[in-house]
Amino acid sequence: MGFNSRCWCIVISILTIITAVIVVCVYFTNPSDPAFTINEFYVSALNLSDISSTTTTTNQTMFFDMKLHNQNKAMGAYYDPVKIIFSYIPNIKLTFVVAEYTVPKFYQRNQKSKHVIATVTSRGIAPYNRTVTSSVFKVEVLTKVGFTTPANRKKRRVSVVANVRVGQTGERDSKKGIRLFESGVGDGFGGLSIKILMLILSTTTILIIT
Ligand SMILES: *[C@@H]1O[C@H](CO)[C@@H](O)[C@H](O)[C@H]1NC(C)=O
Ligand SMILES: *[C@@H]1O[C@H](CO)[C@@H](O)[C@H](O)[C@H]1NC(C)=O
Ligand SMILES: *[C@@H]1O[C@H](CO)[C@@H](O)[C@H](O)[C@H]1NC(C)=O
After folding, report:
1. Rounded to whole angstroms, how far apart are CA atoms 139 and 134?
2. Which of 9, 79, 83, 170 could make an S-S bridge to 142, C-beta 3.0–4.6 Å?
3. What is the pTM (predicted TM-score) of this model?
């Protein structure tokens, strides 16, 4: 009888500790930054067969489709205004901003996607640039994102970038979506993940001792 109740006691305390660890993990878990993907990209001025662009005034229309995706399973995301900056890189030495677009701030539920499909007017893309077989554009996204869990409510900076190659049709030359990747150093959650590690470590230590 005495042995049995002691046994149960240990089982229950182990289960309690495991539950506590799970709760702590869920509460403090690192949210993933939203994923930004370029699905469509078209520059009229670089379309070799677009007659309207060979005349004196170049057609400076640019079209894009960008997917903004909240990857988190259990957290909604609050976006600050999302700034999208398009730069043209005609050669290694030269990069200039040709267009900008801002998505107003919005809320996105867990694992939801938003497509930003828009036409922007670019500046400074010359028709003679079309003679090159492929041109490179830099697409940058700057915003701040916070999440619905109390520990991650504070918005943090998100800065991602990708290069998009455009062929002589004016369209991007890859079929697959282009995922933007992190650039530079943000004020990420590196410190917090160490804290979680310490928490789990100390909990397991307690588990072993008791
Ligand atoms: C390029 O321009 C031609 C002529 O205006 C047009 O028919 C074609 O659809 C354009 N290409 C793309 C990818 O839109
Ligand atoms: C410029 O190109 C866009 C997209 O191809 C087209 O819709 C528009 O009519 C063109 N503008 C002119 C002035 O040709
Ligand atoms: C493309 O255009 C820019 C400015 O319009 C120019 O400085 C650059 O030299 C051009 N590049 C090529 C390869 O023609």
Report:
1. 16
2. 83
3. 0.76
Min mean pLDDT across 49-58, 177-186, 187-196 is at 187-196
Residue 186 confidence class, pLDDT cut points 50, 70, 90:
very low
How far, in Å, CA of 210 to CA of 208, rounded? 6
Query: Which fold would CATH assign to domain 33-186?
Result: Immunoglobulin-like (2.60.40)
Q: Which residues line ligand 3 (CB under 6 A)?
A: 90-91, 94, 124, 126, 128-129, 132
Q: 59 CA to middle of ligand 2, Å?
A: 6
Task: Give me ligand 2 centre to Cα 44, in Å.
Answer: 7
153 or 134, greater pLDDT: 153
Report the C-alpha gap between 97 and 138 in whole angstroms: 9
What would the two tokens of residue 75 be? 């957290």
